[in-house]
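re: that complex we talked abt at group meeting.

here r the seqs, copy pasted straight from the sheet so there may be weird spacing, ignore it
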Amino acid sequence: MNQWEELQQAAFAKRISRRDFMRRATALGVSTALATGVLGRAGYAQTPKKGGKFVIGIGHGATTDSLDPATYPDQMTGIVGWGASSNSLTEMDEKGNVVGDLAESFEPSDDAKSWVFKLRKGVTFHNGKAVTANDVVASYMHHMGPDSKSAAKSILASVSEVKADGDNIVFTLSGGNADFPFYASDYHLPIMPAKDDGTVDWQSGIRTGPFSIESFDPGVGAKLKRNPNFYKDVWFDEFEVKVIADVAARTNALTSGEIHFMDRCDLKTVNLLKRNKDLEVNQVTGYGHYIFVMNTQQAPFDNPDVRNALKYAIDREEILQKVFLGYGTVGNDNPIAPSIQYAINPEPIHSYNPDMVRELLKKAGLDSLSVDLSVSDAAFSGAVDAGTLFKESAAKAGININVVREADDAYWDAVWLKKPFVASYWNGRPVQDWMFTTAYAADAAWNDTFWKNPRFNELLVAARSETDSTKRAAQYAEMQQLLHDDGGLINIVFNSYVSANSTAVAHGDLLSNWDVDGMKIASRWWFA
Amino acid sequence: MNDASTLAKVPRARRSKAIAAWRELKKAPWSAWFGMIVLTGYIVVALFAPLIAPYGESEVVSPGSFDVWSAQYWFGTDQLGRDILSRMIYAARNSMGIAFAATAVAFITGGLLGIVAALLRGWVDQVASRLVDAVMAIPSLIFALMVLAIFEKTEVYHIILVIGFVDATRVFRLTRAVAMNVVSLDFVEAARLRGEGTGWIVRREIIPNIMPPLLTEFGLRYCFVFLTISALSFLGLGLQPPTADWGAMVKETATLFTYARDDFQAGITPLLPAGAIALLTVSINFIVDWFLHKTSGLRDGQ
Amino acid sequence: MLAARDAMHPILRTVLQRLALGLLTLFIVSVVISSLVEMLPGNFAKRILGQAATPETVAAFEKEIGLDKPALERYFVWVGDVVTGEFGSSFTSRVGYQRKVADLITPRLKNTLFLASMTAVIAVPLALFLGILAALYRNSWFDRMVNSATLTTISMPEFFMAYVLMLFLAVIWQIFPSLASVDHDTPLWERIYRCTLPALTLTLVIVAHMMRMTRAAIINLLASPYIEMARLKGMSKSRVIMRHALPNAWAPIVNVIAFNLAYLIVGVVVVEVVFTYPGIGQLMVDAVRTKDMPVVQACALIFAATYILLNLTADIISIATNPRLLHPR
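got the structure back, here u go
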């Protein structure tokens, strides 16, 4: 018994090979089924096998969803309209590297101002038509141009020209960007068939991916069938996504075996879910982070001492434990997740310190401070609770925070970027330049802290085209430090994606760039 | 009786009314007594919440979350480490108060409009009836959802006014129908011929005669309002935090149900606030039921 | 008393009058709904783009779906379309990808009607049966038990009852599925099986109301002189109720049934959410959230029309069963 437990611990710590584990388990008289189950839960790659219908339940999804990648809002469209059915030029691997997907390889020019992507040979669309460079150009043009309303418009803003050159696609950028292949892995950028007039056919749902879409019923679900001609192995025969908005209903569907996988578990009760032997709970810390942002142009937040006082007045650890039940990593007012290249953990660590708060307030010439904090669960699930706890901890340090719960529906429109102190959320980006350009550059459309630091912006441009990695690391370290010391961002936690699945299905290491195994669950999982 | 005759006229009338009421009460069935005792209990708890609750409404008392039941925290703590019993006690005040205010709004506006429509008839009645028809034809929950979404943040009085307004349409319908019957009765005609003013007729003839069905309706409406507010909380439009509310408390803990067979106490936690709602509405319904029974019983004896 | 031949005319006249009033009500509903949606903060373009809404993307989007035109103009264009039987396209339509409101609503409406009829088939006979029995054995332990039980079900929040049923019948004893997800090619028997839990929940919600009204209406009549007379003639209690009380009690009973049937169609959002049932309520809530005006309008019209027609039917039945109502003083 003791030996078996030790063996299991060894497996979970990955101290032992798959083969050794099975041999020793058999020697201990443990059944093969039980041993395989443990291996699966410990995250060992098993030999995948083909077949079966895989059904998942997803918390997102609305009747307004469509297969137009320009307006993919969330997991539902991301999984159906991208991960399962489509491919981008590149994709992310488990370690956070960018690798070719529909592009076999990609090369920059010396100054990283131009990138050449070489198309993979022999790939076809679901209707049998071969994928050409023109399809890629049309798919990119779909998001560009003055009339574009695409969510990918901003990340392609630096692209001045896309053209086909035989089997190659050539991107010309307005400034050097060493990270461009990361951008090409975005889920808004699947490759779709071009029409004769140069526009793209997204309406039919005909793509290149591991599954072809049989039916897509917005707000309800989708059914997909394996693409026999896909260029990689795919295991499931059929794949179905159900939209189950209510978390209790989602949990019930999983425990009663109607679905094999659910995303976004109810954190409050996930410990009880773990007791179920037929289920496995997965936790992936991604790049996403839950934050409070201050408008650094508006009083009292225009004073850096006030900003820092608030940064020390929040008890991040308490919020992590109580609101997110420990599922996540506390933030340190740096939006760059530790797993991202060139990430640092800036000193001094911002943790709850009421004395420091009083000192900083005195420095700012204030006896006390009273501010309104706008929150809504539309910003992130738990924002209202997090705000309530912030109020309690700040009160002990002499800051009165008035928590205002805003309407969910209009939150991003009427509150975010409008009110001076609000709860917000970033999905995070796989590279620093992308994150900074999106939200911290002085002229960024989504600069939600309205922070305009000249040194930071200078470094941002310099680092973008810097190909010497030592210099680049130093530049990014300085930028993160600046943001930490002076910015208007209170990073509460990097959140974890917590999902659960039946042990009937198995998987390898999970991707951390997006939830639901990087939205590619359909092609990466199999029946155990 | 001799003592009574020496008293002034008005107090005597009052006293005999009180005696009659007490006699009626003594005849009430056990269910009505149960309802009245429970309701009184709820009202006492709501009025003296700060004295009764062991901890504050939003006070974080425990460093952990979802503490188990103990002598210190009778029903454990919630997701933020706040005492569930204390929150339930404060919620009695909030939930009952809001539902009462909304129902009162509904009865004052809907009832008055209904009487006016029945008295005046003609175009006033037509306009009011058409508007009420239109609002009633829109599902009330969706209507409330839409109106509440207009306000950037939901305040308590928004909920009271919106729910009160939606419910006023139902009250209007009933009052108008009942008052219409009374208005056409002979004694009202007689009063009119006697030259009594409209106000007098409304106060002395109409209101006393439509009171029994309206009181019954008040009880039922109150329960409906209660459930509507909890449904709104369920769909994500409720009170400002950290205000405690039974409906929201059920929603916050609803997933615990799934685990009732593994962990009984955790499993029934959402039952506590839901049970509080149910017990209150059942009690009110018991009282209403007795009332109905009494009015129809009187007719039996005639 | 009028001759039977003439009595038909007032009924017809009432029906026509009510239909005209119904149309007027529909018009008022459309005005109310339009103004409410206009008053909501934000608009469809901003809702859909969410965090991704920059002024340029919003402007491009608004232009494509015609939101750049003034509200009044959009409303009158819409009224013109509806009069010609055209509900227009959802704002989610794109160039080359039309989503007709009618195509969006039809499958959802069918689902809603299916669940409503399934519930009605269980609930209405059950309520009548329990109501008559309770009236018959008034004040007996049976009456009290049924009364207390129905009072309790009517007092519970809907989602709570749904969860309790789910807990017992889907999680602990896995008899029924907890998901009522159906689509157009779900076979009938599976559809019924999947809809059992939502139908049961709704039954518990509406039975109490109908049963109590049946009981009250009958008991109310038991006090009338003609019933007294029948009883004095030595008729049995059950015969008195079935022959004399029930036929005259139809008016209030039918009214409360109509009210509850309307509720089954327009008021089941919460149950749809809990059981993930693709009904029309969720469609409308989604559309309200995103301000997809054409869909909101169409749903509101359907709801209002259902409500009006069911009430009209109830009125006609009450009038037909009680000619005295034809001549209000």
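couple things i noticed - The mean pLDDT of chain A is 88. The CA atoms of residues 208 and 379 of chain A lie 34 Å apart.
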